Amino acid sequence: MPLSEQSKICLGSLVGASRVLVADAYPSKEELITALVERVCRDFPQLDPADVAAQVLKREEGISTTLDTGLSIPHARLEELTDFVAAVAVLRKPLSATAQGELPIQVMFLFLSPAKPAFFQKHLQILSALAEKFKPEFIEELVSLKNAEEIVARLAQ
Predict the structure, then answer these.
(1) What is the C-alpha separation between 132 and 3, in angstroms, rounded?
(2) CA-CA distance, 49 to 70, in Å (whole number)?
């Protein structure tokens, strides 16, 4: 996909400060996913946090979405949504790999998209934009920011 198409995706518009988690460390990947799902579901009462978390975790069982840069992109497509939403966790200390073949996680960008076919192309564009933007230098910059508002502002650039 040409870079010009990726630049149309504003990752900051998918995340508000209330959906950013900044932590020194976190106990496990599953607990971090669950915490981000809960943040999203506070804003979308039609979503059941337990159901959404189960869908995301099931997706993660098949193929891990953690990249070697330290970015994890758990995601799911949900019938209940009419637009894309996300939550972000920035960890001061990377979440260590617990299973063989897993990679450490420094930033987790959970995103949920509508399950309708019309949204699938943008779903792929968001995945591509995330992989393009979240290079090691960008992740280090996010980790150095002081609070959720600064992180959202940086994501919007």
Answers:
(1) 9
(2) 25
- In 3D space, the residue among 136, 13, 132, 134 whose CA is nearest the CA of residue 84 turns out to be 13
Please report the domains of the chain, with CATH numbers, ordered by start residue: 3-156 (3.40.930.10)
Q: What is the DSSP letter of 91?
A: E
- What does DSSP say about strands 105-114 and 71-72: parallel, antiparallel, or unpaired? parallel
CA distance 45 to 122: 24
Up-side HSE of residue 100: CA atoms within 13 Å toward CB? 0
Tens digits of per-residue pLDDT, 33-88? 999 999 999 999 999 999 999 999 998 887 878 888 999 999 999 999 999 999 99
* Helix axes 49-62 and 29-43, enclosed angle (nearest 10): 140
CB 149 within 8 A of CB 92: no
Evaluate if pTM is beyond 0.70.
yes
140: Cα separation from own chain's centroid: 16
- Identify the helix (H) or strand (E) that includes residue 109: strand 105-114
* Dihedral of alpha carbons 40, 44, 49, 51, sign: negative
Tokens at residue 119, please? 């949204």
Whether the Cβ atoms of residue 33 and residue 58 lie closer than 8 Å to each other = no
